[in-house]
């Protein structure tokens, strides 16, 4: 009966084991009857709704959603350094479209990928990448008031942007589904940074999912120690490295993303590192492909984009091509006049086409026009090798710069390149003003604080727009971090001040972050910061021509030096490179196509180096070295050394003297050790005022020369539970004579000896304590042995001990005082 019943029911329910059937049968046993088999089978068809609480009911797609925690497919990738990178899936987050866990050392990162099933009515890819760096992964508790993770930190934002730029170029052009990538740090071992592994995790998660994606990609971090490239260096190895470069590449050695900083790395070493990283990424790609082949899901079918009638395309071309070519050949246009001319052409074309095709969707006509404009712009660049502002491919825009713009500023500079204008200021402050990093960021980078940091601002008026001015956005954080990387190597390590560099973009028509490097370098020199050499930056663009998504075999391309905003929008790459005459300090490459060949990357690096030298020559005409003549507003530093016994008088009760000094003069004292302090004053006048205050505070009458071992008369000025406060001369600060040094007998309070305030007692002087600087005094050593002590010494057999104890009581007391 059971066999027949199971066969009948399972035909509809697709239950795959006897255990599942027994569980189901136990629940529905009142309904078991031959005449109701049809009803039972019908219920079982909806088991996901009716019996979803059953722990033994399994999903039909058993391979993707296994109830066994042990079923976790994994591949090991052996890197050239001998280290193992593990990529696994199937154990965590099985409701996501794709999930992977990447482990190197004891650092593990889980990445999930989820995309909606319905396409959005958007002309772009709505991709969101979130990177979560949780304290629990490092065995820490967040230090904020709520003791939990709050909004994304700067490190999380920069890591998320790193992942986004690595995977975005490989999505199909017609893929417009809401997609979210979430990177969760499961564990961190303080030796292996998790950000690069998040890129590999995102690549594996997308490859294993049913989301259409033209990956996978592989990413590695490349260090440079003793002119030798190191793949995925540990944190300790990075401290010795002159290069920190992240390289993301595709299967055919095509570069998808570059991000890095260097301690003035020459271009030959940089090229070697990029080639090494691209080659190493192939090992990771092979591992992901093996995992995808065995356990990947079939890719979902894409909803086709609305087809555009060929007649509409021809109408758009006929009505706008000549006007667009005239606009892009009119070199008198600036940013706004060119945009207005193109906008008017768009409006006229859409109106005319719509009047000819009233049934057409205006949005489709508008998108058709946008694609056509982009095609005309790119085609003219490839054919004519002349840019829309009249420059050649390698020409720079007109550059002008100035420094020392406002008297109260420690340092300032204005850098103008074409219609991009950046104003930078420098503020010098005490070492206590250093930027302190959060514990997890410190664990990752090995830095607890930064004495140089850059803040970048991009207000709406910089592009002639209105908008809300509020919390800093992700774009501003990313651009500011890149400019900071470009300037850090030229800042001396032993600079006595904390340096804050602010950058305000006043006008923007492309490459404001690289203009920040130029303006920041000059502002630092204007502030007297002894920079090693000037730094500058430039943006390099790329226009390509290829077919069938094959960017390895480019039919044609041209490299653009010093990008305009419109060239960035229409082009395929925005490579920003900053550095000095000796080498690179920062690099970032945003690539919009599915990778570019190494040959093109190397050519772009060469163009950036040539342009950087030209910019540095122009900057040297304004300011060629750090200012040596002091400004009146510059802060000053000095050092104060005191005696150990003066420390308490300097600090005051609870540090009140230091707080009073800061409130009255603005001067800060920072202790180096027990007797040495660093003085920071915002100006020379404040320093003179502070020194006068300190002299008056520490000034005292001439201290008599006290003889070690001499006996002095002390006056009691206060009784305490622990002893009495006494003075040896009128201007002396009271010092404590402890209960243990008042009498041979052990006492609990000085009143037991009949001592009172104002009484005079005889004490012996044993110098000053070498640590605290307080006087060491004793009354006990001047007294004979106590009565009880004598009685103990008079017992039989102790005569020798008594004689020894009574003949030299002073020596015994000195040993007690020293102890």
Question: Can you offer a commentary on this structure?
Answer:
The protein is an alpha+beta fold and 819 residues long. It has six domains: 2-50, no CATH class; 74-295, Ribosomal Protein S5, domain 2; 311-384, Polyribonucleotide nucleotidyltransferase, RNA-binding domain (Arc Repressor Mutant, subunit A, Orthogonal Bundle); 399-620, 2-Layer Sandwich (Ribosomal Protein S5, domain 2); 636-698, Ribosomal Protein S8, Chain: A, domain 1 (2-Layer Sandwich), CATH 3.30.1370.10; 711-818, OB fold (Dihydrolipoamide Acetyltransferase, E2P) (Beta Barrel), CATH 2.40.50.140. Helices cover 35% and strands 23% of the residues. The protein has an eight-stranded antiparallel beta sheet, sandwiched between helices. The chain has a six-stranded mixed beta sheet with strand order 1-2-3-4-6-5. It has a five-stranded mixed beta sheet with strand order 11-12-13-17-16. Strand 5, helix 5 and strand 6 form a beta-alpha-beta unit. Helix 9 (310-329) packs across helix 11. The radius of gyration is 38 Å and the shape is elongated. Residues 4-35, 40-70 and 786-819 have low confidence and may be disordered.
On the 0-100 scale, what is the average pLDDT?
Answer: 85
> Largest sheet at a glance?
8 strands, antiparallel
Number of alpha- plus pi-helical segments = 22
The assigned CATH architecture of the largest domain is 2-Layer Sandwich
Labels describing this entry:
819 residues, alpha+beta, Ribosomal Protein S5, domain 2, Arc Repressor Mutant, subunit A, 8-stranded antiparallel sheet, 6-stranded mixed sheet, 35% helix, disordered C terminus, KH_dom_type_1_sf, RNA binding
